[in-house]
Design goal:
twelve-stranded mixed beta sheet, globular, alpha+beta, 631 residues
Length: 631
């Protein structure tokens, strides 16, 4: 759009091309003055950690390239890069390599606002500035180092995050990962000077040279000129870095990961006794590998676990809804103090509304929970025909079911059930976090319900007797129960899980139970809408992707299994801070649920147990149809 000003005979011109009236030529407009002030003040405080961390990452990569590749040290790119802080020039390849690795390790901590990373950077940057001036007399390098140092000192309050909980296992993990990385990088260093190598050493000789070099010894590969000294210094620097970081992690003050103390558990059980009926996942807050924060009044709590820098809460807060904001505020303060990414897995719609209202976080529907109302459940009707026929067929095969409270089982029977459940698990680690308790038969969980399937008349001399399948339910208030896990012997007839769920639903009135929560079906609504008549291409494509992923994850199978019992579906949500955190949260959730593990390989674990394999059942290595109620 254009306008004509009074007295202007030249016609219409765009407004943005005209100088506003009243501002003489050469006068700076308020917008330009604001931009000049912003440039003078520098970046926003909240952007400094990411800016400095990125700068350290770039400089670290340049230093590593300078230490590994000799031609890079003489290239025009490195001539320009040497003015950057941390790049100490071509005279010290080993020092450049070490500085690069340290800067890369330091960058992640700076981006996460870690106080220890800030302290290390404040020490490293002046050292880099002195190195620039000493080796290259580079005033630009000194200035750039001091600029970054000034940013760190000026915005030091942005780097207040406390250290993460850790254990001594991180020292072993560091030794394995750094050792493997040093060997791989060492092979590149040894082979980076092909014209200076004497003879034609094999890959075995080069690997042996790397291993010797990491310990500061001479290997079988010889070079002409001073290359031998450069390669040896680089390998020695890598070995020294591996040793120092491992020793530091092994002997630094211990900060154990969060664990539920006896006092915390008692307080949580008291809250569940008053308010446990509201959320079917409430009892899973009693997992003893979780931490907990309470509201100032003590009437509400949020349970969590920290995985890969993500503070994962599960389900809704425990306790009085009116006190939830206080517990949520404590949770967010704890996440901010350690610079953890806050996230909530599997909260209800009410819980999601409170989380988003109190914290400004966002929510995304994750899936649906299948809930069966016991008074409305019946095996009659066409919809239940498949389940009814399967149950009748298994009963005719001679199977019997028993549904009892944990407190009503003998110690010997509980021991057999625990042993069978562990062997029938089919995976090396126990899965489940947000919707799994992680234990069976604890005296404190006497109200839990165990449904078992037996086949009398078979050989009962084995460790499990005639036991063929196990279902474990935890309390959901005083009148409900929530499915924890399902395990079965793969040598038994198919349909054990359906048989036990029907038996539990039939026995529920005698136990005072009126509602039962079954499995959680991830992306259930997408699967259901995508198979309807008239579904659009986007829905059909999304459903096709979920079906494809079901080859590795129980997505479609859990939905189909739950739908057999005609439940009502209760949506569950994931709460997160930024959409960019979803991938990180997803990976942390898979770690917490046991789908991604960082444990040692099975042969090494057997050696650690003295060479004894895991106890075997009738069939070993079998994966059950459904292990826990998570997808």
């Amino acid at each position: 759009m254009s306008v004509t000003l009074d007295g202007d005979k030249s016609g219409s011109v765009p407004v943005r091309a005209r100088r506003p009236p009243g501002i003489p030529p050469g006068r700076v407009t308020p917008r330009l003055a604001h931009r000049a002030r912003r440039l003078f003040r520098g970046p926003r405080p909240e952007a400094v950690p990411a800016l400095v961390g990125t700068a350290c990452s770039v400089i670290g990569l340049i230093d590593i390239a300078a230490g590994v590749f000799p031609r890079f040290r003489h290239s025009r790119m490195h001539t320009l890069a040497e003015v950057l802080p941390g790049a100490l020039g071509p005279f010290a390849a080993a020092l450049s390599l070490s500085a690069g690795v340290l800067l890369l390790l330091l960058a992640h901590g700076l981006k996460r606002h870690k106080r220890r990373a800030w302290r290390a950077a404040v020490v490293l940057l002046p050292v880099g500035a002195v190195g620039q001036f000493t080796y290259r007399h580079s005033l630009a390098g000194v200035v750039l180092s001091l600029v970054l140092l000034t940013l760190l000192v000026r915005h030091r309050r942005e780097f207040a995050a406390l250290p993460d909980p850790h254990s001594r296992w991180r020292a072993l993990a560091n030794f394995v990962l750094m050792g493997a990385g040093s060997i791989g990088l060492g092979l590149i260093i040894v082979s980076a000077h092909p014209h200076r190598i004497l003879g034609d050493p094999s890959l075995t000789d080069r690997l042996e040279h790397v291993l010797y070099g990491l310990f500061g010894l001479e290997g079988p590969v010889d070079y002409s000129g001073s290359v031998d000294w450069t390669v040896g210094a680089c390998l020695g620097a890598l070995g020294l870095l591996t040793a120092l970081t491992t020793v530091y992690l092994a002997f630094r003050p211990e900060h154990p990961a969060a664990r539920l103390t006896e006092d915390d558990e008692q307080r949580l059980r008291a809250l569940l006794a008053l308010h446990g009926r509201r959320d079917s996942l409430g009892h899973f807050a009693l997992r003893r590998d979780k931490g907990v924060v309470f509201s100032p009044s003590g009437k509400a709590a949020v349970c969590y676990r920290v995985v890969s820098g993500v503070m994962l809460a599960s389900g809704d807060p425990i306790g009085d809804v009116e006190a939830w904001p206080g517990a949520i505020e404590r949770f967010m303060d704890e996440a901010k103090a350690h610079s953890w990414a806050p996230a909530v897995m599997g909260c209800s719609e009410t819980g999601g509304e409170v989380w988003t209202r109190e914290t400004g976080l966002d929510a995304l529907e994750l899936g649906d929970e299948a809930v069966v109302d016991v008074p409305d459940f019946s095996l009659h009707g066409r919809a239940m025909r498949n389940v009814r026929q399967m149950v009748k067929r298994i009963e005719r095969a001679g199977y019997e079911t028993r549904v009892r409270r944990v407190r009503d089982l003998s110690d010997g029977e509980l021991r057999r059930i625990r042993l069978a459940a562990d062997d029938w698990r089919g995976t090396d680690t126990e899965r489940g976090f947000s919707m799994a308790l992680g234990r069976i038969g604890d005296p404190a969980d006497g109200d839990s319900v165990i449904a078992t399937a037996h086949k009398p008349g078979e050989d009962t001399t084995g460790p499990y007797g005639d036991l063929k399948a196990v279902l474990h339910f935890v309390p959901w208030g005083t009148d409900g129960m929530s499915l924890d896990l399902m395990r079965r012997d793969r040598s038994a007839d198919p349909g054990m899980n359906e048989l036990l769920i029907v038996a539990a639903l039939h026995e529920a009135p005698a136990l005072g139970v009126v509602r039962v929560s079954l499995n959680f079906a991830m992306f259930r609504s997408a699967l259901a809408r995508g198979e309807r008549l008239g579904a659009g291409p986007v829905l059909r494509g999304w459903r096709g992707l979920l079906v494809f992923l079901s080859r590795w994850f129980q997505i479609e199978s859990l939905y189909r299994f739950n739908a057999k019992f005609q439940p009502r579906w209760e949506p569950r949500y994931v709460v997160f801070r930024h959409s960019g955190d979803l991938l990180r949260i997803g990976f942390a959730a898979m770690q917490a649920e046991g789908f991604v593990t960082m444990s040692l390989p099975r042969p090494l674990r057997r050696l650690a147990r003295g060479g004894l394999p895991r106890p075997c059942a009738h069939t070993t290595g079998a994966t059950p149809d459904h292990e826990v109620r998570t997808a």
